[in-house]
Amino acid sequence: MTKTWTLLTNLNSVAGPTLMLLYPLYASICAIESTTKVDDEQWLAYWILYSFITLMEMVSEPVLTWIPIWYHIKLAFVAWLVLPQFRGASFIYERFVREQIRKYGLRLGKDEAHPHTT
């Protein structure tokens, strides 16, 4: 059982960075090089949400240290955001983030006049 536990612990140490950083990095590069916009939106949305999660973790670190399964919850949530079967990042962005931007009247991207461009 000790060898199995060691293997699972090491697998967990590799799964997090691979799922949260390496795969999204690779997929983002592929998205930039592709001609479709759909994958660009997925990966931009992922990085926005991942940044938000990271900032929230920094602020709430004292509380999160008391939740022993926090890392596993985060890993499962990020898997849902990242995996192409789910496209969770696009879903969250379209349903919640975009709604808040519209609600509070933030003018971003194409909606905003760019005074510095000719």
Question: Your description of this structure?
Answer:
It is a single chain. The protein has 118 residues and is mainly alpha-helical. It has one domain. It is 74% helix and 0% strand. It contains five helices and no strands. The model is unreliable at 111-118 (pLDDT under 50). The chain crosses the membrane at residues 14-32, 44-69.
Distance between the ends:
67 Å
From the alpha-carbon coordinates, what is the Rg to the nearest angstrom?
Answer: 18 Å
Q: Please give the count of helices.
A: 5
* N-to-C series of helices and strands: HHHHH
- What's the helical proportion of residues? over 70%
Quote the average pLDDT.
85
Number of domains: 1
Shape: flat
Low-confidence runs (pLDDT<50, min 5 residues)? 111-118
Structural class: mainly alpha
Strand fraction equals under 5%
The strand count comes to: 0
Biggest sheet layout: none
Question: What is this structure's SSE topology?
Answer:
Elements: H1 2-33, H2 38-59, H3 61-64, H4 70-82, H5 88-103
Membrane topology: Multi-pass membrane protein
Main location: membrane
InterPro entries: TB2_DP1_HVA22
